Amino acid sequence: MPAEKTVIEICLGSSCFSRGNKDIVKIVQDIVAKQNPGVRITLRGTRCTGHCSNGPNIVINGKIIEGVSISDIEEILSRELGIKRI
Ligand code: FES
Known about the structure:
Bound molecules: FE2/S2 (inorganic) cluster
Number of strands: 4
Structural class: alpha+beta
Strand content: 15-25%
CATH superfamily: Glutaredoxin
Helix content: 25-40%
CATH topology: Glutaredoxin
CATH architecture: 3-Layer(aba) Sandwich
Largest sheet: 4 strands, mixed
Number of domains: 1
Mean pLDDT: 90
Low-confidence stretches: none
Oligomer: single chain
């Protein structure tokens, strides 16, 4: 049976981007692509979803996670997907 597809979407709307998602993109890319090479994840940017006041926001498998910061993104990825910085 094929593994369930995991999708991480990072809001690149102007509010989320300027409030920290420009740095979150780099961290997520690093943790997912470079440090967990066996994990199959689609990483993509999204446009504003209208939740700007609670941003910066990401979406993992359809679940909106608000108020993401560079200090908690590692914990979020570990909690939601079981992947971590090596
Ligand atoms: S800019 Fe991200 S929700 Fe609006």
